[in-house]
Amino acid sequence: MATVHQFVTPHGKEITTYNPATDEALHTYTKHTTLEAQQVIDQAHEAFKSWKDVSLEERAEILKTMGKLITRDIDEIAEMMTKQMGKPIAQGKEEAKLCAKICEYEATECVQYLQDETREIQDGKTGIITYQPIGVILAAQPWNFPLYQVIRYSSSVLLAGNTTVLMHAPINWAMAEKIRDLWLEAGVPEHAFEIVFVDTDTFDELIAYDKVRGVTMTGSAEGGKAVAQQAGKYLKKSVLELGGSDPYLILEDADLDSMMECLVEGRVNNAGQTCIAAKRFIVVDAIYDTFRDKFVEAMEQVSYGDPMKEDTQMGPMARKDLRDKLQDQVDRAKKAGAEVLCGGEIPDGKGCFYPATVLDNVEPGNPAFDEELFGPVASLIRAKDEEDAIRLANHHSYGLGGGVFSADKERAIKIARERIDTGMVNVNGYAIAQPNMPFGGVKESGWGREHGGFGVREFVNIKSVFVS
């Protein structure tokens, strides 16, 4: 059989997954038909009838237990990530630790956002505001953070008293099964967290199913538009976390030496396959040449290798087709005038590895500016000054994350707070998702928020009760 790095679908029914570092076949699954998937949703709907009546306090205890189980199985979970999508095993362990913290935070801090509120209203009447679960939430989650993406949404959905049915990325269907088993062990009733093995076309069909009350998706802008259109057609609430081409503004007073490590990490973490990765480096003209030389030198030091080794800095990309797409973007960027300063070519040998790459002379209209580069490729963009840098940062269809670097922290905060049109902004650093801070974007990066107490209210009926 020919070497394949992505899932394949012989006869349209079976899917085989492969280790992207070794080309080894891992699992073969048979896809659900639409009818079978609807039956799974029916089971989740039946589970909802009893789960919604479980006390909020008991649901919170189950989340705490889930966090402990993730910690218990951290080595197994990290190894699964490494084999399924190539994440270096040390990074997989950090992802699992974050998920355990999310469960604990949701259980201890987010309960307050689901408590009833009482307000005095006119004529001596009392108003009660209550947050009631709505039913089955259908979810589609991607492969780049196989555990985190699922825990991020499901912890909030389950704490609120809903049930959920997940379509995970096919290369992570084994992880989906593992997560389902962990939720069951933690104490959620059977079918309260369920999974379906379907493709995106079937998923879109399932949105219309009457027992689906809401939809959440993390993925591409193109996929998000299709989900939003279908959800809107059937008036289903949706939360969408989509693509990003995060701008990082480097101002003339930035401390270049102290920032290089975090900027490189921001671009190559998870082999650059991160929606909130640092992608467009917008540098003011006064320090552009110096920044470019230092950044290229740092990126040239990035190594890739066996993701099963604890000290591996960067593993392979998750699938061959994703690497081929990235190479096509680099090639088109060169034709449009960009210059490759390091990397930029697929290496020989097994696996879906791709080197850390820096592109210079990137301007609007170039694929390296306009498109999301979902891999370890950095785009360098020259700005005249601060105002021009802000203009270039916002001159994009995406609005997920970004960053501002300046020795004047208050200056950077003001720009981040008032001028950068994204849902999240870093100041003088690179931070991934945090349990106590809202996560989400604007424009074609989607809508809705997760984390920080915001996610638990996305799929509830905020009900007003008027008492005379």
SSE order and pairing:
Layout: E1 14-18, E2 25-30, H1 34-51, H2 56-72, H3 74-85, H4 89-109, E3 117-120, E4 126-133, E5 136-141, H5 148-159, E6 163-168, H6 173-186, E7 193-195, H7 200-207, E8 212-218, H8 221-233, E9 237-241, E10 246-250, H9 256-268, E11 278-284, H10 288-300, H11 320-335, E12 339-342, E13 357-360, H12 367-370, E14 377-383, H13 386-394, E15 398-399, E16 403-405, H14 409-418, E17 426-427, E18 442-443, E19 446-447, E20 460-467
Parallel strand pairs: 5-6, 5-8, 6-7, 8-9, 10-11, 10-16, 11-14, 13-14, 16-17
Antiparallel strand pairs: 1-2, 3-4, 4-20, 9-19, 12-13, 15-18
Helix pairs in contact: 2-4, 2-6, 3-4, 4-5, 7-8, 9-10
Can you tell me about this structure?
The protein has 468 residues and is α/β, with parallel strands linked by helices. It is built from 14 helices and 20 strands. It has helices spanning 34-51, 56-72, 74-85, 89-109, 148-159, 173-186, 200-207, 221-233, 256-268, 288-300, 320-335, 367-370, 386-394, 409-418, and strands spanning 14-18, 25-30, 117-120, 126-133, 136-141, 163-168, 193-195, 212-218, 237-241, 246-250, 278-284, 339-342, 357-360, 377-383, 398-399, 403-405, 426-427, 442-443, 446-447, 460-467. The strands form 5 sheets. The protein has a 7-stranded mixed β-sheet, sandwiched between helices. A 6-stranded mixed β-sheet has the order 7-6-5-8-9-19, sandwiched between helices. β16, α14 (409-418) and β17 (426-427) form a beta-alpha-beta unit. α2 (56-72) runs antiparallel to α4 and α2 crosses α6 (173-186). Residues 1-11 have low confidence and may be disordered.
